[in-house]
Amino acid sequence: MDYKTNPTSRKELRGIARFVRKLFKCKNKYRFDVMDAFERIPSVFPAVSCLVVEDDEIEGDIPARCVPDFKGHYTIEVKSSIYDGAAEGVGGYRAHILHEICHAILCLLGFTPILDRAFKNNELKPFESMEWQAKALCGEILMPYEETEGLSVRQIRHLCQVSRESAELRYNNYRKPEPKTPLERRARQWF
Ligand SMILES: [Zn+2]
Predict the structure, then answer these.
(1) Ligand 1 centroid distance, CA of 99 (Å)
(2) 55 neighbors 80 (Cβ within 8 angstroms)
(3) What string of pLDDT tens digits covers the 191 residues of the chain?
(4) What pTM was estimated for this model as a whole?
(5) Phi/psi zone of residue 27: left (φ > 0), alpha (ψ -120 to 50 degrees), beta?
(6) Which of 38, 122, 163, 188 is paired with 82 by a 20 to 30 Å CA distance?
(7) How far, in Å, is the centroid of ligand 1 from the Cα of 190?
């Protein structure tokens, strides 16, 4: 399930990620302390509160969720098994929690749903999809772009404490050429 929101770009999200790391006073060059952010988010963003809930309080295989009260407040609920795993340092679980924090932060920044109807996964263009935006912001916070450039998958995994999949995604991103603007594409044809 996905929702359409105001467009943004990977570059803009990268800037927001840097700002979020600063807001939470992240001192480590690589690893972002998700558990510390979870504890401190109400003091940094008073419109957001966090809750650890029993596993059976959230249906199915959903690890965590961000619940809006439609009056501008967001509650992040995390299953206790996910919370415990994240506290032990499981990369994928850390990302689950931060993903929901990112949903709340993006909503507070104005990236709220602009249509009532929900969309299926991959039905929206990435830059206007709430899911893509939360995933991208989460990745940028966990694996700072400049700092992780040139690192191996293994190094990214260990230094940033992320899952192998996340580290591989980030690693492969550096090998892909940056998308060219229409002007750059045309200029290439001339020279
Ligand atoms: Zn999501």
Answers:
(1) 6
(2) yes
(3) 899 999 999 999 999 999 999 999 999 999 999 999 999 999 999 999 999 999 999 999 999 999 999 899 999 999 999 999 999 999 999 999 999 999 999 999 999 999 989 999 889 999 999 999 999 999 999 999 999 999 999 999 999 999 999 999 999 988 776 666 667 666 665 65
(4) 0.90
(5) alpha
(6) 122
(7) 43
How far apart (Å, rounded) are the C-alpha atoms in residues 133 and 144? Answer: 16
Question: Hey, where are the domains in the chain?
Answer: 10-188
| Residue of 148, 124, 132, 139 lying closest to 30 (CA atoms) | 148
Token pair 């415990």 in the structure block, residue: 84
Cα of 135 vs centre of ligand 1, distance in Å, is 7
Distance (angstroms) between ligand 1 centre and the Cα of 134 equals 6
User: Number of C-alpha atoms within 13 angstroms, CB side, residue 131?
Assistant: 11
DSSP state of 78: E
Residues at Cβ < 5 Å from ligand 1 ion: 134
Token pair, residue 53, equals: 């809930």
Structure token pair of residue 31 = 């690893």
Residue whose C-alpha is closest to residue 24's, from 3, 45, 48, 55: 45
Distance from residue 160's CA to the centre of ligand 1 (Å): 21
